[in-house]
Amino acid sequence: MLERLAEQPPDPLLAVIGMFRTDPRPWKIDLGVGVYRDESGRTPVMRAVKAAEARLLETQDTKAYVGPGGDLVFIDLMRDLVFGGEAPAGRLVGLQTPGGTAALRAAADLLARAGARTIWAGRPTWANHDPIFAAAGLELRSYDYFDPVAQTVAFDRMAAALERSAVGDVVLLQASCHNPTGADLSPEQWAAVADLVRSRRLIPLIDVAYQGVGRGLEADVAGVRQVVAVAEEALVAVSCSKTFGLYRERTGAVFTLTADAGGRTAATSNMLAIARANYSMPPDHGAAVVRTILEDPDLTREWRAELDGVRGRIRAVRALLAGFGRCGGLDLVPLAAQNGMFSQLPLDEAQIRRLREDHAIYMTASGRVNLAGLKVEDVEPLIRALTAVFEAA
Ligand code: PLP
To answer: Which residue, 3, 22, 140, 343, shows the most beta carbons closer than 10 Å to its own?
Structure first.
C-alpha cells in the first residue's frame, strides 16, 4: 500500500540550508534561516530561561502527565501577556499546545468541527499556513496582503477582498512581524480590520508568533486586542518560540473566544478532545520555563531586557540597511518601517541565484530574508552584492 504514496517535494528551505552548509566560502551569509541570531551568529538560550531551568531541575519532583489542556497557570499567564487587562476572561478558553504550529492546527480543527469550510489567508503568508489549514480540511481563499514595490501592506486590496467575504467567514491575520514580509498593519489599518470584523461578523484567527520582537510586548498585540474586543468569536494562536527563544521545546497556546460564557464549555471539551486525538498531552518543559519566568518579577525583568535586546538588534540592522537608501533599483528605505526578522525583497530567480553563486548570499526562492542572519560586518558586502545584481539586470 505504501508504495502508492506520491513522493512529496523537498522543503525548499532545507535545500537552501544544505547548499549554505556545503559552501566553503568563509564570507558566506545565511539569510534563509527562520530563527533569531545574535551578532555572533548564535541562537542563544536566554539567561532567564537558563535560570528558570536551573530552578526546575532543583524543584521538579515528578514527570507525570500534565493533562491534555496543559498547565493552567501557564495558560493564565499567557492570557495576560497577550490580552492584557482587557481579556474577556469569561469568554476565553485556553489550551497549552506544542508550539504555535499545533496552536494553529488545534484552531483549524476546532473551526472544522464547528462547520467552517473556508479560511481567508493573506498573500504571501508563512509557508506552513496553507498545509496546516488544508490538513484540517479547510479550503483556502486568498486576500492580497503585500505590495512588493512599495514594500508595505496592500491595504486597499486586502480590505476590498474582505468586503467580498461572506458573513461569518474565518480570516487569518498575523499579529506583528509579518512572515514573510515584515509589513504589519498600522493602528489605523487594525481599526479598519476591526470594523470589517464587526460589520461582516468575521471570525478572526490571529497568529501571534513574534510578540515583543517587533515594536514591543504591548505594541505587538495592540491590533489583536482591538480586533478581539469587537469580535463575536475569535481564535488566537500563540507561539513562545521567538518570544522566549524556546523553539525546540515546542511551547505555545491557543485561545478560543466564544460568543458567550455558555459557549466556553463546549469549546473547552472540543479543544481537549482535539489535543487527545493528536498528541494526548503537550510537553511540559517549555511551559514550565515560561511559567517560572512570568511568576518571578526578577526573571521577568531579565527576560524583558533580553527581548528588548533581540528587538533592538533587529531594528538596528534594519536602520543600517535603510540608511543606504537606494541600492541599484532596490529601495531599502521601507525596511526601517517594517518589523521583525523577515522582509521579502523584490528579487527575481536569476538575481537570487547570482547572489548565491557569485556572492555566497543565501535566501529562500521567494526573496524572503532573515535580517537577524546579518552581522553588522555583513551589511556592506550585502549592499555591494545587491547593487551588483541590480546593475546587471
Ligand atoms: N506562525 C508564524 C507566522 C511563524 O513564523 C511561525 C514559526 O516560524 C509559527 C507560527 C509557528 O511557530 P512554532 O510552531 O515554532 O511555535
So the answer is: 343
Kindly state if the Cβ of 256 falls inside 6 Å of ligand 1: no
CB 158 within 8 A of CB 122: yes
Pairing of the two strands 118-123 and 139-144: parallel
Q: What angle do CA 207, 211, 215 make, to 5 degrees?
A: 120
Q: Say yes or no to pLDDT of 393 above 70.
A: no
Supply the angle between the helices 376-392 and 297-322 in degrees, to the nearest 10: 30
Return the C-alpha cell found at 311: 528587538
Give nearest CA residue, ligand 1 atom 4.
209
Give the CA distances from residue 199 to residues 163, 192, 286, 389, in Å, rounded to whole numbers and listed in that order.
Answer: 10, 10, 39, 47
From 177, 253, 251, 280, select the one nearest 219 (Cα to Cα). 177
What percent of the chain clears pLDDT 90, i.e. is strictly above it? 91
- For the whole prediction, is pTM greater than 0.90? yes
Dump pLDDT digits (tens) for 171-214: 999 999 999 999 999 999 999 999 999 999 999 999 999 999 99
Residue whose CB lies within 8 A of the most ligand 1 atoms, among 105, 128, 174, for a mutation test: 128
Q: What sign has the CA pseudo-torsion 249, 11, 38, 325?
A: negative
User: For 313-343, what is each residue's pLDDT tens digit?
Assistant: 999 999 999 999 988 789 999 999 999 999 9
